[in-house]
Amino acid sequence: MAFVAPTAEQLGLFLALPEIDGARADLLIQQAIALCETVVKPLPDQATAVVLSAAGRAYVNPQQVSYETIGPMSVQRPQGSGGLYLTKADKTALKSLAGRGGAFTVDPTPATADPSPTYPVDDGYGPPLEYGPGWGWV
Fold first, then answer.
1. For the chain, is the Cβ count within 10 Å smaller at the N or the C terminus?
2. What pLDDT, in 10s, does the model give residues 73-90?
3. Virtual CA dihedral for 124, 127, 131, 137, nearest 10 degrees?
4. How far apart are CA 70 and CA 115, in angstroms?
5. What is the DSSP letter of 98?
6. Strand ranges (DSSP E) for 15-127?
7. From CA 30, how far away is CA 8, in angstroms rounded?
8. Residue among 45, 49, 52, 65 at smallest CA distance from 12
9. What are the two backbone dihedrals, phi and then psi, of residue 50, each rounded to the nearest 5 degrees?
10. Alpha-carbon distance 5 to 101, whole Å?
């Protein structure tokens, strides 16, 4: 199944906003998809959360405001909390969803390898077939 881009309505639900500017939300979603495709292409089916997260950050804080005062209320946001960008966690999640990263093994054995031994087998080599009590193998 291919990746299906989230809609403006889904972005509104993700941000818990009663109203959302559909054209602006669609633009930010398309830009977030393009940004995510710089990390993993094609995007995995479950990448919707990462796309919504990046688009949501840009939607709620487009000018990257870090401190704002309106009347008696003031808000201070962390640095880098606005604009369209991917966090390190977003990039890690995309790679993980695509099946990249983590531990893995590589089998260097060719597919045409024969499981039989390649060295000469000597039937006379090794312990004899009888065990003598007190004497061991004789």
1. N
2. 887 766 655 678 898 999
3. 120
4. 77
5. T
6. 67-70, 73-76
7. 10
8. 52
9. -70, -40
10. 24
